Amino acid sequence: MSALRRSPALLMLPACLLVTGCLLLPIAYLIGLSFNPPVVGEVELTTTLTLRNYARLLDWFYASVLLKTLWVSIVTTAISAVLGIALALSLWRTPAQWRGLLVVVVLAPLLVSIVARTFGWMLLLGDAGIINNALIGLGVIREPLHMMFTQGAVIVGLVHVFLPFMVLSVLAAFDRIDPAIPEAADTLGAGPFTIFWQVILPLLNPGVAAGVTIVFSLAMSSYVTPALMGGSSAGVLTTLVYQQLVVTYDWHFGAALVAVLLATTLVILGSVLYANAVRTARWMGRR
Amino acid sequence: MAHVQLSDLSKRYGVFQAVETVSMEVQSGEFLTLLGPSGCGKTTTLRMVAGLVPPTTGTVRIDGRDVTALSAAQRGIGMVFQSLALFPHMTVTENVAFGLKMRRVAPAEIARRVRSLLEIVRLAHLADRYPNQLSGGQQQRVALARALVIEPSILILDEPFGALDRKLREAMQVELRQITRDLHITALFVTHDQEEALMLSDLVAVMNQGRVEQLGTPQEVFRAPRTRFVADFMGVTNFLKGRWSGGVLLAGGGALPGPLQQVGADGSTVELAIRPEEVLLQPGAEATTGALTAAVLQAVYHGTSTSYTLRLPDGQTLMSREPNDGASGYAPLRFSAGDAVTARWRPEAVHLLQS
Ligand SMILES: Nc1ncnc2c1ncn2[C@@H]1O[C@H](COP(=O)(O)OP(=O)(O)OP(=O)(O)O)[C@@H](O)[C@H]1O
Ligand SMILES: [Mg+2]
């Protein structure tokens, strides 16, 4: 026991082995593959190195898919953050005896299989779906609105799945706020809006940062929802990767796409989190 | 500069009565302390005055005006919280300036007032620090400055010195008293420290289980506790049961020194309290009126004083504490276990308690 206590490294070993074995090695392998010349159907690493796979990415088509992926992820993250903060705020203000129940309701989307959830949205948003039928029935529109298989549908679907992660992260931050802090602002003459914007919101920073990290990386790497709800026009990087690996058997180019996806996610999240940490480092330091 | 009046203030949480019909009045510029054990409703009472929780019944009046329905922001009361509740993401200056910004005071004026207040609490050199870069005592003073900067006529302080060490605590107490006197602020203070309450206050309200047991000056609650709870809280450890008989109070196998004002009929019993330091001992058992004979059970040396536990003829026990000052500090203890002694005290040292 005392030996374990003296060396935390020893305690971290199993986790490190697991992460290395299950996560880092396959990714390293894939990245290695992306620097090999493309041979259809070939998945062995070779020693010939080339940048040809990456050169193909300079094509406007691939750049536009990357931009589209980024756009969808950023909008999904932003909407999740706004809704997540609002939901967490109302959960925070709910009396304790109801809160457990409401948290389960918020988590409900995670309990439903992604395919069932997606088909649910199809029933709602489809050309002959509930919304269109209702609007036509009410005489608001004549032609059905095209909502399913659009970028908007993908964003709606993603927000639906990822919102619970945001809510939980932000709720944790709410619970770390001393309830006397908003009360202090109250006695000093601040109204509810000022208290929210100037006192509560800044203190939610760590929770929102955690939520943004989770939602953005999940959105960038999401596959099922864009594939099922986006249709052909709303292709994102992951659907492209799938095509390369499964349809065209070009693992080398697919690996390059994976590398780009990974790098983009890491660079964007890294710089956003770093800028945020620099901005808040002085007051957030440990007591 | 404000007169505060609480009438029949109660707060109920579900079936639990946290505060029960508290009525009291604080004159403008007075310092009132709520004193009582943990959970007796001190914070809840103050929060109702501040407007942070609505009372179940009763009213709060400030300068005669009923403010019960007003929000905390509208009451303009300065408050120092039990947990301080500083804004962690704001510097000392920003924390203190917050209340003035909410009042839309001109920036130049804000800067001037914040600076002058930081000088009063001696924090001017730390103006740009964040709360997490300050010591407990410094955070304390920021909280005080933040509450004072809005020039409140009423200041509420909820156990503000709980987390401080003794020395800092005493310095802050002196400072606080000076500031409220200088600015003529009506202060409502909470503590469960008896000494702190006596030191600071014009008025002390001793609370127990949601009720005010006694409201009076520090001397009154200390010298003339009216209930057993108050006496106990004020450090009185001697309680005796007595019986009236023709204007004389019989207790402990003898008649107590009088004259005492008889309350109730002959034969009725009464509980009384005596401070141990009021009980004077003489060697030898000598039963006279106004003195009780006793046997020493135990003698305990405390350094500056010595305490004796005595057994009275009727079986009740009594404590006596004598100071070890002057020559007696160097002499051996006057009594030891088994000695027969005579105990007496001044008539006014006896506090008759309400049952
Ligand atoms: N929101 C609440 N819901 C239910 N009960 C409460 C609530 N707030 C306080 N109480 C109860 O009311 C009683 C009085 O609480 P209060 O905070 O006023 O005590 P206190 O005298 O300030 O104690 P302390 O010295 O420990 O701060 C306590 O028994 C507490 O459990
Ligand atoms: Mg309290």
UniProtKB/TrEMBL annotation, chain A:
Presence of the UniProt keyword Cell cycle in the record: no
Pfam families: BPD_transp_1 (PF00528)
Signal peptide: none
Compartment list: Cell membrane
Keyword entries, A-Z: Cell membrane, Membrane, Transmembrane, Transmembrane helix, Transport
Domain (ABC transmembrane type-1) ranges: 66-274
Record carries keyword Nucleotide-binding: no
Membrane topology: Multi-pass membrane protein
Membrane-traversing stretches: 9-31, 70-91, 98-116, 122-141, 153-174, 194-216, 223-245, 251-277
InterPro entries in UniProt: MetI-like, MetI-like_sf
Family membership: Belongs to the binding-protein-dependent transport system permease family. CysTW subfamily.
Protein name per UniProt: ABC transporter permease
Native species: Roseomonas alba
UniProtKB/TrEMBL annotation, chain B:
Keyword Transmembrane helix: no
Keyword Metal-binding tagged: no
InterPro entries: AAA+_ATPase (IPR003593), ABC_SmlMolc_Importer (IPR050093), ABC_transporter-like_ATP-bd (IPR003439), ABC_transporter-like_CS (IPR017871), Mo/tungstate-bd_C_term_dom (IPR008995), P-loop_NTPase (IPR027417), Transp-assoc_OB_typ2 (IPR013611)
Location of the ABC transporter domain: 4-234
GO molecular function: ATP binding
Keywords per UniProt: ATP-binding, Nucleotide-binding, Transport
Pfam families in UniProt: ABC_tran (PF00005), TOBE_2 (PF08402)
Gene3D superfamilies in UniProt: 2.40.50.100, P-loop containing nucleotide triphosphate hydrolases (3.40.50.300)
PANTHER family: SPERMIDINE/PUTRESCINE IMPORT ATP-BINDING PROTEIN POTA (PTHR42781), SPERMIDINE_PUTRESCINE IMPORT ATP-BINDING PROTEIN POTA (PTHR42781:SF4)
Name under which the protein is recorded: ABC transporter ATP-binding protein
Lineage: Bacteria, Pseudomonadati, Pseudomonadota, Alphaproteobacteria, Acetobacterales
